[in-house]
Amino acid sequence: MDAVDTFAILAREHERMLYAYVLGLVRDPAMAQDIVQEAFLKAFRKLSTLRETESFPAWIRTIARNVAYDHRAARAREIPTDPEIVQGMEDLFSAFDSPEGGDLWSDRLREMKDCFARLPEPLREVCRLHYFEDRQAQSIAERLALNAATVWKRLERARGALRECIEDRLALKRS
Amino acid sequence: MANESGRIGNRERGREMALEGILRSRFGERPCAAAERALQAIRSADASTDSPEARTATRPSEDGGPRRRSNGRRRFAPSAGRRWPAWIKTGLATAAALLLLLAVRLAFRERTPGTGGRLASGTERVVRLPEPADRGERDAPVSGSPPEKGVISPAPADPGAELVRELAWTENFDAGGSSGRSRGGSRSIRRSDAFGAPQPPGGTPTADLAAGSARQGEETIGRSAVFKDKAVDPIGKAVDRASPVADSRPVAGSGADDLRARIEACVGGLSFRVRIPEELPDGYRLAELVSKATGDGVLLRYVRDAAVARVFVSPSAGPDTPVRKVQRDSRILLAARQRGLLIAIEDGPTDPAACEAWVNRFVTP
Fold it and tell me: How far is residue A152's CA from residue B323's CA, in Å, rounded to a whole number?
């Protein structure tokens, strides 16, 4: 098995995770795919610097974050650079890095899916429309006969409820 | 404490961003082909170099997503080895198209008179234009008299250059002065016609208080009588410094009925509609009319005491423009295009705003 084959296994295993991570940074699905692809290319070229295979998820996320910063400079997008924010993202994603939760990354999100299912239906609905279908708040408001401000408020409440739920499930330290 | 609180808030914000990313990925179910394309690039290209071709050849695209540009490039440029000829072909095609466009444009300019294009010879320009005044396009402004601030110079790219070009016929139109003669004859004088009626033998003294040959003490050619170092006041009385103008007749002093008759005769000989006011703001009164032989231009001279303002009116196609200062050689005119007429005023008001009232008087309602 040559280096490319080894890297192919790692890349396929962590692709969905990395895509989700970059989507949290840049929100734009197409741009996120660009960043993920470029991150993999850079990672392959720097593969010799990776000391432990276990650290690959955090390593590839760091590479992707730096690529995203480059994209931000080129496209003037707002991507947070605050170390605390970066650490907050790392808190959650590192909790799903362990293969004990399942072979597939999506299988490891069991706890989170459960938290999502426990959301009140109005909050779930706006989340589905906004995050799954990429609809803007105004579009959701028109569809659900709501104010855009109400949509934003529901999204905010949903995020807060999900965060608290997942922090409890994963025993993450809370403020 | 507040900082500590803020830092904790940011960490929670980071967790929420991670949640958002996971939600946007539909819990990891959202299609993503980035890894496959990266691997394809790694395998197909030289993985040891950061080859842009490798990356662009494998731009990611979400199935059904908005990444159309990347898809297109990948489809039409499947590999670096086959993309180079495509680029070369595209470049050559673009260059050929540009050359063709340039050739057509040059050919069009050569055949179209008055387009303002660069000409191989000056004589061709003279043949095209009935009036000899296109010096503003070929000659630099008069040395020692830099353009006044805010005055439009006849630069090709300047919007005012078009007005400058259209005002070529006004150059020495009424005087037939030295510049006209030095260029092989004052064509404008020969071609111009005052009211379409023949001049009486010996000519008629006319008011010409403007600059020109008279001020320089030179003769003025034409059918009119020649007055040297002598002028005629607006009502026909001889005063110092002036010369008669060929093919023109005085208006003022001839009586109101005669004035209107002459105005009507002049207007009747024109190929365009223009309103000729007998009086302009600030007490200027019509003193003289000189129309072009071709009927597509008229000079109106208005006087007030010793002041003489010249108004040139000619048909002009193009959008209306506000009054603006236009420089043609050393002359400064206030010109505007209104309802198909180019109205230029020389030695009148110096303020474009004040000139608006003058211009409006010539525009037919």
Answer: 54
Nearest to A85 by CA among B24, B27, B1, B16: B16
Q: Are B251 and B259 in contact (CB under 8 A)?
A: yes
As a whole number of angstroms, the distance between CA B286 and CA B234 comes to 9
Give the architecture-level CATH label for domain A1-97: Orthogonal Bundle (1.10)
User: CATH number of A104-175: 1.10.10.10, 3.40.50.300, 1.20.120.450, 3.40.50.970?
Assistant: 1.10.10.10
User: Treating both helix axes as pointing N-terminal to C-terminal, what angle do A83-95 and A148-170 enclose, rounded to 10 degrees?
Assistant: 60
pLDDT above 80 (res B183): no
Contact B15 A167 (CB under 8 A): yes
Torsion angle defined by CA atoms of residues B6, B10, B11 and B15, in that order, rounded to the nearest 10 degrees? 150
Closest CB from B12, B14, B32 relative to A36: B32
Distance from the A163 Cα atom to the nearest Cα atom in chain B, whole angstroms: 6
| B59 and chain A in contact, CB less than 8 A | yes
Residue B21 pLDDT > 90, yes or no? yes
Nearest to A131 among B23, B58, B60 (CB): B23
Residue among B349, B345, B330 at smallest CA distance from B177: B330
Q: Name all domains of chain B by residue range, CATH numbers in brackets.
A: 2-81 (no CATH), 122-197+248-362 (3.30.200.100)
Q: Are B323 and B334 in contact (CB under 8 A)?
A: yes
Nearest to A131 by CA among A55, A48, A3, A20: A20
Q: Residues A31-70, buried b or exposed e (16+ Cβ, 10 A)?
A: bbbbbbbbbbbbbbeebeeeeeeeebbebbbebbbebbee
The answer to whether B60 contacts A34, with C-beta atoms less than 8 Å apart, is: yes
Q: Do B39 and A90 touch (CB under 8 A)?
A: no
Nearest to A124 by CA among A78, A93, A159, A80: A159
Element (H, E) at B145: none
Query: pTM to 2 decimals?
Result: 0.43
Beta carbons of B144 and B138 less than 8 angstroms apart: no
How far off is chain A from B88, nearest CA to CA, in Å? 27
SS3 A155: helix
CATH topology agreement for domains A1-97 and A104-175: no
Give pLDDT tens digits for B147-176: 455 555 454 445 567 778 888 888 877 654
- Gap between the Cα atoms of B185 and B35, Å rounded: 82
pLDDT in tens, B205-236: 333 323 233 333 332 223 232 333 333 333 33
Distance CA B227, CA B212 (A): 13
Q: How far is A60 from chain B (nearest CA, A)?
A: 12
Taking only residues 164 to 223 of chain B, the set having a beta carbon closer than 8 angstroms to any beta carbon of chain A reads none
Nearest-CB residue to B35 (from A11, A89, A116): A11
Sorted by where each begins, the domain ranges of chain A are 1-97, 104-175
